[in-house]
Amino acid sequence: MRNIPYLRSFLFALVFMLCMAASSFAQIGVAITIAPPDLPLYDQPVCPGDDYMWTPGYWAWGDDDYYWVPGTWVLAPEVGFFWTPGYWGWGGDGFMFYEGYWGPMVGFYGGIDYGFGYFGRGYEGGRWDNGHFFYNRAVNNVNVNVIHNVYNTRINNSSETRVSYNGGNGGVNARPTSQEQAAAHGRHIPPVAAQTQHAQAARSNPQMRASANHGKPPIAATPKPGAFSDRGAVQAREGGTVHTAGARPENNAHPANNSSRPTAVHPNELPPVERPAAPNTGNPKLDQKYQKQQEKLQAQQAKERQKIQQQQEKEHQQLARQNANEARKQQTEQRHQQQTQQMAQRHVQQRQQLEQRQQPSRAAAHPRGRL
User: Fold this and answer.
1) What per-residue string of b and e applies to 192-215 under the rule 16 or more CB within 10 Å gives b?
2) Which of 170, 191, 205, 209 is nearest to 27 (CA)?
3) pLDDT band at 369 (very low <50, low <70, confident <90, very high)
């Protein structure tokens, strides 16, 4: 019986890995129920020399807090290899970290916009050509007096976001493509020793902990791994939001969707659905048809709300009978919140789709109104 919790954790991690289909270097461990902080804003140090590859900074977990691992320039372990950054992903019961890796192709990194060429898909910071790496000066800080293999291609990154995790409430909504899955299962190698030592140095530095720097690390990036005291090291220009236990982060990619209303955890906490205006196409039969369609959809959505609410209440009762601890209760609440928000988003989409289907017929009912 003592092995059951460990078995459950192992099975959760295994299922999460298969579902995300991202990297075979996923870190198996206890799922973290607190979302990682948003990514801080910082400048990129000057590239130290030829064939150095940029590895973005990221939030890692150590003991009881997140800590910042500064972005840094690392020599590629092999000619033709690129770096695929690691990322945090929501697995239903908590956040798990997927380790980055080196390989001939850039794989899936959660759709996270790390900047400097890593805008969520692939890498726009440079390319290999005849055994040498050529840097895109539009997204990299390169001294052309030192490095001559450069080009300039501007990238239109209109979907900039500082969210640092994939999936779950407020996370980036991205899934791996077939090419990214191929990269994950193809030939690649884990972080080199310099990267591992760099991350260990960050973990041992109290100033890198989110609770100490409040999401704004004093050392956001370094010119080389472990060079925390180098004059070329840079601090964050702007910090990222630090989430706490019980917090319900919203997606920073869509700030217009945020409001002062607390995020609903259960369906009965959602605001009442506003009844749409009565159809008025000028055609009584068409109006009656539309009215029935709207009422049918409302009834279906109300039934689904009630069903999910009853199921969640049943799970609450089970937790009470089992005298569950606070960690398990929190995990259940986070899963309930995810269910509720997904249902609410789905209902909005259904209403919008119904309205769109009715629009062509409404235009036909008023031909004079066409342009």
Assistant:
1) bebbeebbebbbebeebbbeebeb
2) 191
3) very low
Mean pLDDT, the chain, whole residue set = 81
- CB-count burial class (<10 Å; 0-12, 13-18, 19+) for 131: exposed
pLDDT band at 274 (very low <50, low <70, confident <90, very high): low
Partners of 59 in the β-ladder: 68
Q: Hey, which residues does 118 pair with through a beta bridge?
A: 115
The answer on pLDDT for 261 being more than 80 is no
Q: Which residue ranges make up each domain of the chain?
A: 4-255, 264-369
Q: What's the rounded Cα separation, in Å, for the pair 212 and 292?
A: 58
Instruction: Find the farthest-apart pair of alpha carbons in the chain and give their distance in angstroms, rounded.
Output: 76
Residue 51's nearest CA partner among 33, 72, 78 is 78
Q: What is the pLDDT of residues 83-138, one digit of tens each?
A: 999 999 987 778 889 999 999 999 999 999 999 999 999 999 999 999 999 999 99
State the amino acid at position 354 in one-letter form. Answer: L
CA separation for the pair 283, 103 (Å, rounded):
63
DSSP 1-23: -TTHHHHHHHHHHHHHHHHHT--
